[in-house]
Amino acid sequence: MSNTLPLDLPNRRNRYLVMRHGHSEANRQGRIISSPVQGIASFGLSARGRAEVSEVLSAWRWPRPTRIVHSDFLRTTQTAMRVAEHFGIATSVDAGLREREFGELEGGEDARYADVWAWDAVDAGHERFGVEPVDAVAERMIAVLQGLEEGYEGEVVLLVSHGDPLQILLSALAGVDLRHHRDRPPLQPAEVVVLSE
Q1: Which InterPro entries match (predicted)?
Q2: Quick check: is 135 in a domain?
Q3: Which residue from 1, 114, 123, 132 has the fewest beta carbons nearer than 10 Å?
């Protein structure tokens, strides 16, 4: 696959916000938790993460969401549920928004992310360490948007996902060479970004 992803979203029928989950137990422990086996059942928000989400909600300055779609990992589910409760709306799950799989690095120190990102900068299709390739992450994230475009119109959709997948999605939408997805400032825990029209 090429290093850029062709997008077919020229005239969006909905508006989109993306949100990274709040600080999690995985973040607190400095561990890579990317497998659904661990991520769905455990490693939810830390106390700090719950506070971050509350702070974002108390100072909300973005369009009010009418629909929330989130990864099925516990940390994103808990973030989405707090936002949904605040606005009185329902949530739905889409596994396409899951964390990037980090293969054999699962459960290890999060300092190893840098090793993966160094290879990302060389080849967006690499699978070193058994990781999910950048271009595959971009494809599944874009597929979520395309599905929402086909299913809804006039909604303000909040997508709650993870740092790497959102970094890759934002790069893909901007037409950036996916090898350079780490060049943009990373989203901070509980950060919200409006997708440009």
Answers
A1: His_Pase_superF_clade-1, His_PPase_superfam
A2: yes
A3: 114
